[in-house]
Recover the amino acids of this structure.
């Protein structure tokens, strides 16, 4: 299914960006205040030095010493105040950025939870992770440094130019005349840097995806002794990333070298012009010294702007990628008037249901059947005919392309997804257990469950005995995806999880296919207990696992071909 995105217009995009400052306006205002104060102090101190060299040193010795000591004390106080300003900006300013990053990370993670199976079918986990980590860090830096660097630079630049013009307007023109060329140079390379940084983001996301894929499948890699193949694949991705980095660093190199040359040229131009003016008698040496002090104040904001432009490219690129993700429209959404599905009995009805994926070729065509409360229904058929897809439509992991599915007479699209899925338990062939303890994984079926309820669920699932034999019993850490457990143990924990949930409708998706005969027998007994009194849909690989089903549906490429009994089905398959 095609993933839709909401196009955010440029003004709306940056309006949303600014909205992240709203909860922290007090902290933001304080950060900007101390940024202004620090910038102002850096402008005042050279004026005090000019006053000393231009006036105070020519007074009587006693008076001159007294004024110099007073001014020195004031300057020390100003330096200490500037030090605190810089501390506040570095600590509290960064914390503001971190909190805003926290909010954005929550937002994108919440959005991930809303997206449908069809979205994740076409995504790589590593790339999705990159949006939550690398991109948001760069945005956080922009949140903090962007406004403050701009403000400090503007204050210092405007203040320096004004003071320089007052000291000697002709000499000020010499310095300012170079600025337009610097701006043109910066604008040209900003565009190139933005493209380069965007490529970097895409490449590092690809590498993250490769690493995640490799580490998740490391047992398969080692079982086939394909480490060299994986290394070769990784080298390819790594080389592409290095190449994109090379291009971006080349742009950065030209950019930094060029702007550095411009700032040095400003200093040289001022010194040469100042020397000429001194020779002509139109400026004092003390004024030239003051001028040189302010030229440093004049070029320092330029260097800060250099850093800001680089930071802005990183942050803006990350922000655009963030917006791309949060703008993805979930395909499965609750209707505006969706109601809670309550007091479910378990009557399920498929009415002329058809379904297709992105290729527009129907996987299911005009499927219709009714299942009464408590019935045990088995679906059989060759691989690829849509058995799993059909069952995935019941909890709305995908939406039907045509027709409707009813539970107790209510269209599942008219109820909330949460209430619908709260009433459905699923046991799959490929069991997913989370890193953590046995207790935490079983409790996933009912987060409010007590320890006694968890033990009871494990006993019903036939898991209690092996759990108590684990090193730490129910508190044993089972590793990522339950790697420390056998297939049958993982399956029984997943069944215990559904026992704890206690739903009226069950779906077993080839839950015993990957197990050996003895383990399959134990798990099958647990499944039979779980299915008792509930409406149950079973996707069967082996007919022996569903001999107790009330009805059997044989799915083919043309739809449901046969509704039959176990004995009849066995005879037809012999």
């Amino acid at each position: 299914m095609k993933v839709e995105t909401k196009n955010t217009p440029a003004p709306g995009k940056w309006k949303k960006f600014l909205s992240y400052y709203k909860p922290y306006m007090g902290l933001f205002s304080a950060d900007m205040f101390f940024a202004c104060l620090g910038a102002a102090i850096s402008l005042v101190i050279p004026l005090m030095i000019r006053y000393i060299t231009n006036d105070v040193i020519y007074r009587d010795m006693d008076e001159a010493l007294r004024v110099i000591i007073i001014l020195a004390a004031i300057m020390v106080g100003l330096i200490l105040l500037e030090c605190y300003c810089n501390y506040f900006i570095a600590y509290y300013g960064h914390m503001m950025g971190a909190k805003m990053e926290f909010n954005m990370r929550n937002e994108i993670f919440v959005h991930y939870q809303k997206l449908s199976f069809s979205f994740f079918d076409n995504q790589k986990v590593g790339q999705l992770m990159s949006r939550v980590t690398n991109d948001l860090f760069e945005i956080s830096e922009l949140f903090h440094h962007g406004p403050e660097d701009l403000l400090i630079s503007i204050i210092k630049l405007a203040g320096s130019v004004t003071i320089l013009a007052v000291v000697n307007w002709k000499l000020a023109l010499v310095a300012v005349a170079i600025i337009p060329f610097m701006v043109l140079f910066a604008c040209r390379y900003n565009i190139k840097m933005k493209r380069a940084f965007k490529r970097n983001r895409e490449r590092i996301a690809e590498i993250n995806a490769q690493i995640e894929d490799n580490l998740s499948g490391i047992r398969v890699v080692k079982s086939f002794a394909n480490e060299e193949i994986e290394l070769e694949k990784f080298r390819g991705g790594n080389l592409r990333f290095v190449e994109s980095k090379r291009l971006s660093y080349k742009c950065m190199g030209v950019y930094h070298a060029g702007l550095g040359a411009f700032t040095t040229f400003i200093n040289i131009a001022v010194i040469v012009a100042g020397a000429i003016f001194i020779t002509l008698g139109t400026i004092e040496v003390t004024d030239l010294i003051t001028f040189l002090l302010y030229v440093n104040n004049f070029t320092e904001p330029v260097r800060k702007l250099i850093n800001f432009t680089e930071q802005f490219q990183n942050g803006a690129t990350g922000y655009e990628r963030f917006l791309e993700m949060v703008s993805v429209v979930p395909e499965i959404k609750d209707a505006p008037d969706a109601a809670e599905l309550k007091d479910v009995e378990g009557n399920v009805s498929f009415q002329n249901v058809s379904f297709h994926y992105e290729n527009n070729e129907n996987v299911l065509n005009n499927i219709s059947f009714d299942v009464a409360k408590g019935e045990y229904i088995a679906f059989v058929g060759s691989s690829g005919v849509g058995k799993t897809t059909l069952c995935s439509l019941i909890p709305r992991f995908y939406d039907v392309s045509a027709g409707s599915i009813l539970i107790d007479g209510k269209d599942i699209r008219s109820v909330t997804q949460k209430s619908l899925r709260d009433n459905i338990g699923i046991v799959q062939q490929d069991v997913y257990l989370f890193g953590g303890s046995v207790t935490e994984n079983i409790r996933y079926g009912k987060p409010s469950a007590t320890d006694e309820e968890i033990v009871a669920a494990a006993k019903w699932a036939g898991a209690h005995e092996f759990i108590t034999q684990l090193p730490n019993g129910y508190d044993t850490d089972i590793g990522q995806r339950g790697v420390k457990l056998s297939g049958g143990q993982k399956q029984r924990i997943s069944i215990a999880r559904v026992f704890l949930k206690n739903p009226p409708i069950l779906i077993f998706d080839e839950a015993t296919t990957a197990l050996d005969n003895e383990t399959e027998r134990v798990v099958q007994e647990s499944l039979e207990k779980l299915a008792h009194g509930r409406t149950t849909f079973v996707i069967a690989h082996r007919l022996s696992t569903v001999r107790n089903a009330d009805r059997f549906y044989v799915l083919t490429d043309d739809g449901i071909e046969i509704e039959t009994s176990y004995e009849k089905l066995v005879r037809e398959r012999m």
